[in-house]
Amino acid sequence: MLESALPARRSETRTEPASRGWRFGWAWLAVWALGVAGVAGAEDEGTEGWATQTEISFVRASGNATAETLGLKGTVTRKWEQGALTLKAEGLKAESVETRRLAVGEPEDFVLVEERLSQLTAERYLLSLRYDREIGKRLRWHLGAGWERNRFSGIENRSLALGGLGTVWVDREGRKFETAYSVTLTRQEDVEPLPGADLTFVGARLSWNLVLGLGENGSYTNTLVLDQNLEQTSDSRADMVNSIAVAVNKQLALKLSLQWLYDHSPALAAVPLESPSGSSAPQTVSVELRSFDTIFTTSVVVSF
Question: Which residues have C-beta within 8 Å of that of residue 2, sequence separation ≥ 6?
Answer without folding.
Answer: none
